[in-house]
Specification:
Order of helices and strands: EEEHEHHHE
Helix content: 25-40%
Radius of gyration: 14 Å
GO molecular function: kinase activity
Number of domains: 1
Number of helices: 4
Protein name: Phosphatidylinositol kinase
Low-confidence stretches: none
Largest sheet: 5 strands, antiparallel
Number of strands: 5
InterPro entries: HipA_N1
Pfam families: Couple_hipA
Strand content: 25-35%
Shape: globular
Keywords: Kinase, Transferase
Mean pLDDT: 94
Structural class: alpha+beta
Length: 108
């Protein structure tokens, strides 16, 4: 199992988890979910429920991944399997992303 903190404008919004079977769960933190001032991180992950499950990486997070030759270079240089979308997300969405979301790995 791998987990990551999802930050919205540098504030903890929730946890993204990849289970051992490859499925994914995104869960808003209680405080974030209950706050009227905290927005949903995505239109596809609205705050009308606190937890979401998917067999595949959620499209919102998948769309944050590099593509084409940029993806090839990153995977080659950092020895990441090109099909390891969660590993690629953890590597590339730590610091400088387009938009308000950052992804920080939780070390176990």
């Amino acid at each position: 199992m791998r987990r990551a903190i999802i930050l919205y404008k540098k504030e903890d919004a929730g946890i993204l988890t990849q289970s051992d079977d490859g499925s994914f769960t995104f869960r808003y933190h209680d405080k974030w979910f209950e706050s009227k001032d905290s927005p949903a991180i995505s239109l596809t992950l609205p705050k009308n429920q606190q937890e979401y499950h998917s067999e595949f990486l959620f499209p919102f997070f998948y769309n944050m991944l590099p593509e084409g030759s940029n993806k090839q270079n990153i995977c080659f240089e950092l020895r990441i399997d090109p099909k390891d979308y969660f590993g690629l997300l953890l590597t590339t969405a730590k610091y400088d992303t387009i938009g308000a979301i950052q992804v920080k790995e939780i070390k176990t």
